[in-house]
Design brief:
This protein has 326 residues and is α/β, with parallel strands linked by helices. It is built from 11 helices and 12 strands.
């Protein structure tokens, strides 16, 4: 009788009650250990994912979370090592946000071969491993929302820049593609740069935007940055160049600086995800899978857009400053 069967027998009593059972926790012998492996650990987004994962674990009452990932989102080697470490520990399940869609395939395959189920969240994985589910924002739709907000901000005409992230990051690639696709219906909007990457931190993004503004700033109407570090660097560059207001700016994912930008008009819109829900649903989905329940192939956690006009609404305030694990 293998380890999965023993776990299923031990958890039989909770199959019909679910994680939300108010009767309390499970005996220690039945505690499930779920590894949650983010792309990185330094950005606020991941701290909110962590909060959601811990929220789910508390509701289940028989789940322990191991939260571990690389410090920076570009460190694929370290992320692979974390996954392998979790396999060696014999965790009961892994929720993983791959920072490289191809680079984590072998590690995920190894986990599944070890009978450790995997939920992918935030950013997709190349086809191959039979994962439980993919829990994420519809990033293509998020990119389309950014394009619509950009068109509105610049009066449906003018030159714009798309600042890309890192090659191989499925989530941001979807945002980039959605943005470019949605702009096709605006014949008077011209994308003057869409092949430059801001990298995984604010400093590299600022340096790249500085260069782009030197080339295109004179006739530039707008710029879209596809993730938090890139957006922070873009905003800093626009402010230093004295182009705030002249160049309309759309961001993806919030930060304190970007929220301030919404308030003072430096930023025209921020496309928002729900990282708390992402962490929460990822853990619930892997736990339910261990208990024998089937999951949908894709579980959407929603996408939204905050603007200076709607940022005071309750839901927008929740998403602009989601709860975090300190």
């Amino acid at each position: 009788m293998n380890r999965r069967v023993l776990l299923l027998l031990g958890l039989l009593s909770c199959i019909f009650t679910g994680c939300g059972d108010a009767s309390g926790g499970k005996p220690d012998s039945n505690t499930l250990t779920i590894a949650v492996v983010p792309k990185g650990t330094s950005h606020e987004f991941w701290k909110s994912v962590h909060f959601g994962a811990e929220k789910a674990a508390k509701e289940c009452g028989n789940v322990e979370i191991i939260w571990k990932g690389p410090v920076v989102e570009s460190d694929t080697g370290s992320q692979i090592q974390v996954v392998k470490e979790m396999i060696s520990k014999g965790v009961d399940g892994i929720a993983l946000a791959p920072n490289q869609k191809g680079g984590l395939v072998d590690a995920v395959t190894e986990s599944i071969e070890a009978e450790i189920p995997v939920v992918i969240f935030d950013s997709g994985l190349d086809e191959g491993p039979e994962i439980v589910s993919y829990v994420a924002t519809d990033n293509f739709k998020g990119g389309q929302m950014a394009a619509e907000e950009m068109a509105k901000a610049i009066g449906e005409k003018g030159n714009v820049i798309l600042l890309r992230y890192l090659a191989g990051s499925e989530s941001t690639e979807q945002r980039e593609e959605g943005f470019l696709e949605a702009l096709k219906k605006y014949p008077d909007i011209k994308v003057v740069s869409s092949d430059q990457r801001g990298g995984d931190n604010t400093t590299s993004a600022k340096e790249k935007v500085d260069q782009l503004l030197q080339l295109h700033g004179k006739d530039l109407a707008g710029i879209f940055a596809v993730c938090e570090p890139n957006a922070n660097g873009t905003l800093e560059s626009l402010r230093n160049a004295g182009l705030v207001g002249k160049v309309k700016f759309i961001a993806f994912d919030p930060s304190d600086a970007l929220i301030e930008g919404l308030e003072d008009g430096s930023c025209s819109g921020i496309v928002l995800q729900d990282p708390v829900e992402m962490g929460y649903r990822s853990v619930l989905t892997i736990v339910d899978s261990i208990k024998g329940k089937n999951a949908e192939a894709f579980i959407s956690t929603g996408e939204y857009c905050a603007t200076p006009e709607n940022m005071g609404e309750d839901r927008m305030k929740e998403l602009l400053k989601p709860q975090i694990t300190n």
